[in-house]
Design brief:
The complex is a heterodimer. By secondary structure, chain A is α/β, with parallel strands linked by helices. Chain A has two domains: about 35-150 and about 295-365, Response regulator (Rossmann fold, 3-Layer(aba) Sandwich), CATH 3.40.50.2300; about 155-285 and about 385-420, Response regulator (Rossmann fold). Helices cover about 40% and strands about 20% of the residues of chain A. Chain A has helices at about 5-30, 55-65, 90-100, 110-115, 120-125, 155-160, 160-170, 185-200, 215-225, 235-250, 270-275, 295-315, 325-340, 345-355, 415-420, and strands spanning about 35-40, 75-80, 105-110, 130, 145, 175-180, 200-210, 230-235, 260-265, 285, 355-360, 360-365, 380, 400-405. In chain A, the strands form three sheets. Chain A has a seven-stranded mixed sheet with strand order 7-6-8-9-10-13-14, sandwiched between helices. A five-stranded parallel sheet of chain A has the order 2-1-3-4-5, with helices on both faces. A two-stranded antiparallel ribbon of chain A has the order 11-12. In chain A, helix 8 (about 185-200) links the parallel strand 6 (about 175-180) and strand 7 (about 200-210). In chain A, helix 2 (about 55-65) runs parallel beside helix 13 and helix 13 (about 325-340) crosses helix 14. Chain A is elongated and about 105 Å long. Chain B has helices spanning about 5-25, 30-50, 60-80, 85-105, 110-130, 155-180, 180-190, 195-200, 205-220, 225-230, 235, 240-255, 260-275, 280-300, 300-305; strands at about 140, 230. Chain B contains 15 helices and two strands. By secondary structure, chain B is an all-alpha fold. The longest helix of chain B is centred in the middle third of the chain and has 25 residues, at about 155-180. Chain B has a domain at about 40-230. The chains are: A alpha/beta, B mainly alpha. The interface between A and B is medium-sized, with 33 and 36 residues.
Chain lengths: ~425, ~325
């Protein structure tokens, strides 16, 4: 130590060095911390068939991190299993926000699991991408909530309107409606009856059935007695199978032009494989099918990577219905973060409200409550199915898009009996 | 007042004080969300034990009473705007009435037949709710609760505090039943119903009282649930998981005293809450099953019996 002045300089430099992390630290370290995206997925319980959506999340995370992350930060997923129970949802999302400090949230699957989290995100003013919750934000009207699913505006009533548009075009005057006594199908049937009334159709048969019904023979006979020209069915996988088999056994009137609408099951590999040719002629809702109007290099690349993972995990090897939209959720979050250059909920939401976003499911613009401005629920007709090989469904021509007109790849083959026999 | 009762009273006051102070001691809302579930199960296990433990009548219908409380509270709030304390009181009264009705219909049968009959209650109530559009049917019902009172820091903290009060009241009720003439009569019923009847114990009346009290506590446990989740739907409200936990928790903790269900619920519900956000839920369910088998096989009297003062004493 040469002089006292030099000693003081050295002490000042040491003190500044020691204090630097405390002074600069929060800002510097915040930039290094990953951006955390929190979600709950139904890995177990009755909705476990939706867990293949997690592959969509993970593929998006891989892609975004391979491209350097967001705002120079890596992206990290924090996922918990809600066990398909709404009772677990509040604690899980509090954990994601209050303990894990997630910057962006993805909702649980569907309306019933998402509903408990809506007051929470509204009260805390958080940013969330909704996963398949029909009319999920119609009550809360939170301005920082955006749907990844293609339900469109007024989805509680209109999401299956395409079926009724097709029926109207065919000059249908009498329609029958049946539904399972469960949330999604009950809403679909209620909305369907309203649209039918709007189009001046007479609902000649409208009945719900208990969820565990396996014999539909009497119901099909009653429908035939009503002499409808279209039959709108809102069912879950087990009853979808039983209805298709019941129709094969009992037969249906030759007057029926459209049959299907809101049957859950024929979107998934398991049911497509087990029913095979029995599905011919069915007109049903879907979110994605590999038809020329929907195939893009981006979504083809997604499925090229999804399939081997799905096969390895033993989940739906086709994965058309849910996984692409989980990837879309990530793309929406990424666009909001990049576009607003921030993880501030208000700025991210403002960006998504003001800008359409390019995704693997096409360009998406949002209404003020986060619905897609344009409904893009598909009505597809299953055709030319031979045998039970799942690979045939990867080729065009087996799930022909009838509605919406912008994505149409074919005309309706009617009546149903003729299309069924083809 | 006896020494034990004074100690219990002091303990209850301490727990209540902590329940009211906790929101100011712990700032992170997550602990109140998780704590609510644990306390909800303390109440459910305690309520179940009044009939299932003291009288030995295994009731699989806990979810029915819980769900009835959930829906009554949701209906009263959304339709008439009743405040939460009145919703809880109404749920307890309806739960007691439901308990008496169930008791009249089922208490003349015993063992596995009684268990199946109580399971039927859940199915019947769930089906009824599914078909009442005024209760949201299968689509469920959104319940946007009122703002919490000014003294509370937020909705999760308020729900937690309310559940502390319900849990303490339930445990106090269970303890009173245990040490009163009702508890003595129910123990006689559990030991030998025929012998008790011959000795002049009014068995049916006692069992009806137990059904009413058990139903009241189980329904009261469900009353704040709509405000916790802001949404009710029949599948979750009448979930069999609730019924299974209601049985598993007292069995693990011990069914003979009020302490058993409290210990069992605190242990099992806490582990379940931690497991949900740490390990996979398959392992969580496996853990519950393994613990249950272990206790039934090696410690049928539960934890309270293992460490209790009366260990080894001959029991009915």
């Amino acid at each position: 130590m040469k002089t006292r002045r030099q000693f003081h300089k050295l002490m000042a430099a040491t003190a500044a060095g020691l204090a630097a992390p405390a002074i600069l630290g929060s800002k510097v370290f915040a930039q290094d911390k990953p951006i955390r995206v929190g979600a709950s997925v139904s890995l177990t319980g009755p909705l476990a068939s939706t867990k293949n959506g997690q592959i969509g999340y993970e593929l998006w995370r891989e892609d975004v991190n391979a491209a350097g992350g967001l705002l120079g930060r890596k992206v990290e997923l924090v996922i918990y299993d809600d066990q398909s129970s709404a009772a677990n949802v509040p604690a899980i999302y509090s954990k994601l926000v209050d303990v894990d400090a997630c910057d962006v949230l993805f909702s649980p699957y569907g309306a019933n699991l998402s509903a408990p989290v809506m007051p929470f995100i509204k009260q805390r003013d958080l940013f969330m991408i909704g996963m398949f919750g029909l009319a999920g934000n119609d009550v809360a009207k939170h301005d920082k909530f955006f749907h990844s699913g293609p339900w469109g505006p007024n989805s509680g009533r209109d999401w299956a309107r395409g079926f009724f548009d097709l029926a109207k075009a065919q000059g249908v005057k009498k329609i029958a409606i049946i539904n399972a006594d469960l949330e999604f199908s009950k809403n679909a049937a209620k909305g369907g009856a309203e649209v039918a009334k709007e189009y001046g159709m007479e609902v000649v048969f409208n009945q719900s059935y208990p969820p565990n019904t396996s014999d539909f023979s009497s119901m099909i006979r009653n429908i035939n007695a009503g002499d409808p020209e279209a039959i709108f069915i809102a069912s879950y996988p087990a009853d979808s199978t039983a209805i298709i088999r019941g129709v094969k056994e009992i037969g249906i009137s030759d007057k029926v032009k459209l049959f299907g609408g809101a049957m859950i099951g024929p979107q998934y590999g398991a049911l497509l494989g087990s029913l095979g040719p029995e599905l011919n002629g069915l007109v049903n809702s879907h979110t994605f099918v590999p038809e020329p109007t929907m195939q893009t290099p981006a979504i083809k690349s997604f499925f090229d990577r999804y399939t081997p993972i799905a096969v390895k995990q033993g989940v739906d090897p086709l994965g058309f219905y849910i996984p692409p939209f989980y990837y879309v959720a990530g793309q929406l979050a990424a666009a909001a973060i990049k576009g607003s250059n921030s993880v501030d909920p208000a700025k991210m939401a403002a960006f998504l409200h003001a800008n359409a976003v390019d995704t693997i499911a096409g360009k998406i613009a949002f209404t003020e409550i986060g619905d897609w401005k344009e409904r893009r629920v598909l009505m597809v007709q299953l055709r030319g199915i031979k045998g039970n090989d799942l690979e045939q469904f990867r080729n065009p021509g087996h799930q022909v898009i009838l509605d919406p007109p912008s994505l149409k790849t074919g005309d309706l083959a009617a009546p149903y009996n003729k299309a069924r026999a083809s | 007042m006896k020494k034990n009762s004074l100690l219990f009273l002091a303990g209850a006051i301490i727990v209540l004080t902590l329940g009211f102070l906790m929101p100011w001691l712990l700032r992170n809302p997550f602990y109140f969300f998780a704590g609510y579930v644990v306390l909800q199960y303390v109440t459910i296990a305690t309520g179940w034990n009044i009939l299932g433990g003291y009288a030995g009548y295994i009731n699989f219908g806990a979810a029915g009473f819980f769900g009835a409380g959930v829906y009554l509270s949701a209906f009263l709030f959304t339709t008439f705007g009743l405040p939460l304390p009145l919703c809880i009181l109404a749920a307890a009264i309806v739960g007691a009435v439901l308990g008496v009705l169930m008791g009249y219909l089922t208490l003349r049968i015993q063992g596995v037949y009684f268990a199946i009959a109580t399971l039927g209650l859940v199915v019947v109530l769930e089906t009824i709710v599914h078909n009442i559009s005024g209760l949201g049917g299968a689509s469920g019902m959104a319940v946007y609760g009122p703002r919490p009172p000014a003294w509370s820091l937020g909705p999760s903290q308020y729900n937690f505090t309310v559940m502390v009060v319900i849990a303490v009241a339930s445990v106090a009720l269970a303890r009173w039943v245990e040490i009163s003439w009702i508890g003595r009569g129910l123990r006689a019923v559990r030991a030998s119903e025929d012998a008790a009847e011959c000795s002049g114990v009014p068995t049916l009346r006692l069992k009806l009282v137990a059904c009413a009290l058990s139903g009241a506590v189980l329904a009261a446990a469900g009353a704040p649930y709509p405000f916790y989740t802001s949404f009710v739907e029949p599948v979750t409200a009448f979930s069999l998981i609730i019924g299974l936990n209601a049985i598993a928790m007292p069995l693990i903790g011990g069914t003979r005293t009020w302490v058993g269900p409290v210990i069992g619920a605190l242990l099992l519900a806490s582990v379940q809450q931690i497991a949900t956000v740490t390990i996979s839920s398959e392992l969580n369910i496996l853990f519950v099953g393994a613990v249950l088998i272990a206790f039934v096989a090696f410690a049928p009297g539960g934890i309270s019996d293992l460490f209790g003062r009366n260990k080894g004493r001959a029991r009915p």
